[in-house]
Amino acid sequence: MLERRRFLQLGTLGLSALSFSGFKSNSETRKPIVISTWGEGIAANKAAWNILRVGGRALDAVEQGVMVTESSLNCCVGLGANPDRDGYVTLDSCIMDENANCGSVAFLERIKHPVSVARRVMEKTPHVMLVGSGAQQFALAQGFPLESAELSESAKKAYENWLIKSEYKPVINIENSKNQTAFAPNKLENGKWNHDTIGMVAMDANGNLSGSCTTSGMGFKMRGRLGDSPIIGAGLFVDNEIGAATATGQGEDVIRICGSHLVVELMRQGLSPENACKKAVERIIKIKGTSAKDIQVGFIAINKKGEYGGYCIQKGFDFAVCYADDKNFMIPGKFLI
Ligand code: GLY
Question: Which residues on adjacent β-strands are paired with residue 95?
Fold first, then answer.
């Protein structure tokens, strides 16, 4: 109703202003729109919105959006993030467009923007996925600079702290302090709980969908470990007829259910984005049983109407939604346990 009133108030501004103000241009569709995981999503959405608001492509928006997070040196994602248990930061990322084109890199070291390398894999190679030294070699050949191998200050401290016990405890993305006390090194100095992934999905003014996902993976993971984030269908999936979904949290459990693909398929069956995310979370909980309380997984999704939603296993996950210059806000993920 509010949106309808605003539509009428702004009627004199003309159609181009309407289509980029992010409210429903007709009673069916809200576009453009971008949503992304966690609090970092606000800054990432802003960058994505700057592309979407002037009629840019969703693919460019989801790349530029998560690059903001990858650039942050005091964040969960990118070269400033926590290393693996051997002290190396390894990055995973993927991207997918409205034509089911997709690209991915995994176990990539010393490259600042894995999402952009993933896009090059998509656009410049006949492949979908490059990993490790081959991915780095490709990135360098494409002109991406080789960055320092030094850990960021916050990651160095967290790693030194972790080395005291060197306890391999694959617990991530739980911003619930009760469950995180055993994983104190993962707490940043500013008191904010750490996590490691940003996933973003967007629909542009033309109604085309794209998505991106980028991560440093689980902090202090085994060297060589990959999670869901670089895996199309697990960490990210886009079907331009239906919708797009992305995941965050313990990647192993997202992979087990092909999480993002499952969410999109549930939307195909008629579920709203929120209910599709909920069903996917329920499936993980069913598999994990009582141990589900020890992990976090969150999904977010949008559909072709510009409806959005998210769901997670337990309290603490939130996501950022942006569909107008003055509408970029956080939503607490509903949770099941
Ligand atoms: N979802 C990020 C990971 O498990 O690596």
Answer: 103, 212
Per-residue model confidence as pLDDT tens digits over 102-125: 999 999 999 999 999 999 999 999
Our answer to whether residue 197 is catalytic in this structure is: yes
Which one-letter DSSP state was computed for residue 192?
P
Distance (angstroms) between ligand 1 centre and the Cα of 270 equals: 28
Residue 88 CA to residue 105 CA, distance in Å, equals 16
| Tokens found for residue 317 | 């996950």
Please state, in angstroms and rounded to a whole number, the distance separating the CA atoms of residues 167 and 265. Answer: 38
Q: Encoding tokens for residue 321?
A: 């939604």
pTM of the model: 0.89
CA of 217 to the centre of ligand 1 (A): 5
Which residue ranges make up each domain of the chain? 30-335
Q: Which of 254, 261, 263 is nearest to 287 (CA)?
A: 254
Torsion of CA 319, 323, 325, 328, to 10 degrees: -10
Quote the Cα angle for 38-315-187, to 5°. 60
**Given 37, 197, 214, 246, the catalytic residue:** 197
β-strand partners of 247: 299
Structure tokens at 152: 């960021």
Provide the residue type at 157 as one letter.
K
Two tokens at 266?
């549930």
pLDDT in tens, 265-291: 999 999 999 999 999 999 999 999 999
From the options 3.60.20.30, 3.10.450.350, 2.130.10.10, 3.40.1440.10, give the CATH code of 30-335.
Answer: 3.60.20.30
217: alpha, beta or left? (left if phi > 0; alpha if psi -120 to 50): left
Is residue 337 pLDDT above 50, yes or no? yes
